[in-house]
Amino acid sequence: MGSSNGFYSEEFDLDAKWLIDPKLLFVGPKIGEGAHAKVYEGKYKNQIVAIKIVHGGETPEEIAKREARFAREVAMLSRVQHKNLVKFIGACKEPVMVIVTELLLGGTLRKYLLNMRPRCLDMRLAVGFALDIARAMECLHSHGIIHRDLKPENLILTADHKTVKLADFGLAREESLTEMMTAETGTYRWMAPELYSTVTLRHGEKKHYNHKVDAYSFAIVLWELIHNKLPFEGMSNLQAAYAAAFKNVRPSAENLPEDLALIVTSCWKEDPNARPNFSQIIQMLLHYLSTISAPKPVIPARIFTSENAVLPPESPGTSSLMAVRDDLGQIPRTQIEVRPKAFTPAAYTIQLKTQALHQGKHFTNPEGLKRLQD
């Protein structure tokens, strides 16, 4: 469909159940920012949410492009639900383009790993996170969607730091065997080599690729989960891209267990067709996880009152079946108290603003949405 200004635009056609009422949306502190959008903590109805406000653009061409991208992202989010994908709550286009999702309080995987350095994740935890990511990707691919921007910044942890969810569909595209896709892609360090043919891509250049680009990115993320180091350390993003694309350079897999090394090296192969799909990746990860022995139960020291005392055998308990995670990562932030059902909307608005001020937060009314775009 063509827009009135002559540039291509996509129709914002959303099922009524996903339409957000801006009057019920309260915007709080900013928690993130990207090239095309800002993300705020907020409140919708009785739920703490993440509010992504998309920049409208300056020129007619830019406006049309961002509206099309927004419509595409909303369409995909509304179509795909999975426990390892950030839950979509709704969207609206007026007064500004807004996408509302659940708010995860565990922070990004990038921040979680940085807070742990120089320590590494427990191997069971690292593989568990990798399984979460692989399951999210398998779901997307089963719906014909390529994410194209798989990296630690787009992976969010739950408050208990036990689950990873994939977020940000801003660069996701529906896959078509006959389609050539634009070269607008994710961060170079995690990008598959076939996404670029020169270090600097021309605007709008077309490239052939398929869903296997996500398998490459997954390999780099998995390597990072295991080593807790930046991949291609010592290189800039562009240097990493050049080394991967033109010299077939990859991070070292020498110190990895054999089964994990096989997963990583097969996923980042130069030939996309030689890379496994995510159903196969999940099976390989599950097999490796089954080979890792569970942590041994800690048997407390006993005081023997007699040399001939007979003691019952120790029960391993449930602790031996659980990965130790309590000492990892940051402490989740406290949520704003959920509104009691008996509150009227007016009373709740007053209470919410009072609570927000006490917590150093300020929630704006819907009319403020327009100002946030500036």
From TrEMBL:
Alphabetical GO biological process terms: signal transduction
Domain Protein kinase residues, every copy: 25-289
Keyword Nucleotide-binding: yes
GO molecular function: ATP binding; protein serine/threonine kinase activity
Annotated binding of ATP, by residue: K52
Keyword Ion transport: no
The entry's keywords: ATP-binding, Kinase, Nucleotide-binding, Serine/threonine-protein kinase, Transferase
Catalytic activity: L-seryl-[protein] + ATP = O-phospho-L-seryl-[protein] + ADP + H(+); L-threonyl-[protein] + ATP = O-phospho-L-threonyl-[protein] + ADP + H(+)
Cellular component terms per the entry's GO annotation: cytoplasm
UniProt-listed InterPro entries: Kinase-like_dom_sf (IPR011009), Prot_kinase_dom (IPR000719), Protein_kinase_ATP_BS (IPR017441), Ser-Thr/Tyr_kinase_cat_dom (IPR001245), Ser/Thr_kinase_AS (IPR008271), Ser_Thr_protein_kinase (IPR050167)
Protein family according to the UniProt entry: Belongs to the protein kinase superfamily.
Protein name: Serine/threonine-protein kinaseY13-like
Native source organism of the sequence: Populus alba x Populus x berolinensis
